[in-house]
Design a protein that fits this description.
Blueprint lengths: L1 E6 L5 H8 L5 H9 L3 H22 L6 E3 L5 E3 L5 E7 L2 E7 L3 E7 L15 H9 L3 H19 L16 E4 L2 E8 L5 E7 L11 E3 L3
Parallel strand pairs: 1-10
Antiparallel strand pairs: 1-5, 2-3, 4-5, 6-9, 7-8, 8-9
Helix pairs in contact: 1-3, 2-3, 4-5
C-alpha cells in the first residue's frame, strides 16, 4: 500500500489545468471547471492526478476506469486494487492498496468549537476529549478516525458517527471489525487511515510526496 500526497499552489493552477485536465473523461473535466474557487478545483483535480501517478509508478497500471458502487463509493473497474482520496485546506492525499481502505485528512483549525459536535460522539469519546491536554487535536483525531472508518466501510454518511466507538484503534460496524492508524505528514493536519484488515495497525506507511 502507498499514500501519495501534495499541496496545492495558486501560482501553478493554470499549469495543472493545461497539463492534466485533458487526460481525464469529459464528465470529470466539466466537474472541475464548475468550481468557482481555484482551491476546490485544484484539490479535486490533484486527487485524481495522485491516483493516476500512484497506479502508474507503483502498480504499473497506465489506464483505468473509475466507476461507482450502488452506495456511491468509487472503485477501479476490472482491477483488484482499492483507493481512497481526501483533501483539506491545502493538502491532498491518495491511498492505494490491495484491500479496502479509507483515508481522511483534516486541517487542525484551532478556532473550531468541538462542543458543537458533541451530539455526534459517544459519552466515552466526549469525556476523553474533555480530559485531554490538547482538546482540539484529540477532537480531530476522533473525527479522522471515524471518517476513515466510514469510508473504508463504504456506507458513507448513513452510518451515524455516534453509533460506533473506536477503542485502541479498533471498532465494529454491523458485526465487522475495522482498524485505524494515524499517519503523519504535516503538523497542521490530522490524518488517519482505516481498513477491515488488521495489518493496517502495524503497517509502516510508505509515503510519497509528489512534485506534480
Amino acid at each position: 500500500m502507498v499514500i501519495l500526497y501534495t499541496f496545492i499552489s495558486e501560482e501553478k493552477h493554470q499549469y495543472f489545468l493545461d497539463q492534466y485536465l485533458n487526460s481525464f473523461p469529459e464528465s470529470f473535466r466539466q466537474d472541475i471547471l464548475k468550481y468557482r474557487r481555484w482551491q476546490d478545483a485544484q484539490l479535486s483535480l490533484l486527487g485524481r492526478v495522485l491516483l493516476q501517478l500512484g497506479l502508474k509508478s507503483h502498480y504499473h497500471i497506465d489506464e483505468v476506469q473509475i466507476i461507482r458502487s450502488p452506495d456511491n463509493k468509487p472503485y477501479l473497474k476490472d482491477h483488484p486494487l482499492h483507493f481512497n482520496i481526501s483533501h483539506s485546506k491545502e493538502l491532498v492525499v491518495c491511498a492505494i492498496g490491495e484491500f479496502p481502505i479509507g483515508i481522511d485528512v483534516e486541517f487542525i483549525d484551532d478556532k473550531i468549537n468541538y462542543l458543537d459536535f458533541q451530539f455526534q460522539m459517544t459519552r466515552h469519546e466526549f469525556d476523553k476529549i474533555e480530559r485531554s491536554k490538547d482538546q482540539i487535536r484529540d477532537f480531530f483525531l476522533y473525527w479522522t478516525q471515524k471518517e476513515s472508518v466510514m469510508k473504508a466501510h463504504g456506507g458513507g454518511m448513513v452510518i451515524p458517527l455516534d453509533s460506533f466507538e473506536i477503542v485502541n484503534d479498533e471498532c465494529e460496524i454491523e458485526c465487522k471489525k475495522f482498524f485505524t492508524k494515524e499517519i503523519f505528514i504535516d503538523e497542521n493536519y490530522q490524518i488517519c487511515i482505516a481498513s477491515d484488515e488488521k495489518i493496517i495497525k502495524n503497517w509502516a506507511p510508505f509515503l510519497v510526496t509528489s512534485e506534480i
